[in-house]
Design a protein that fits this description.
The chain is mostly helical. Helices cover about 80% and strands about 0% of the residues. This is Small hydrophilic protein.
Length: about 60
């Protein structure tokens, strides 16, 4: 995977995480809110880890 492709993929992951967080804020169902927030958190964490690995940082951010 090229550097541009990877950057685009990471950007899409971050955008999707933001969209999920926005959806979570708008929903009135507590279980659905929790599910969306957790999914958003995992996606954001994964994108940060992949970004860190690409930059040479071997230590996860968590």
């Amino acid at each position: 995977m090229s550097s541009e492709e990877t950057s685009a993929r990471l950007r899409q992951m971050r955008e999707k995480a933001g969209e999920l967080a926005n959806e979570a804020e708008k929903t009135t169902d507590p279980k659905e809110r929790q599910r969306l927030m957790e999914k958003s958190r995992r996606l954001r964490s994964r994108s940060e880890q992949e970004s860190g690995m690409r930059s040479g940082d071997i230590y996860p951010s968590e």
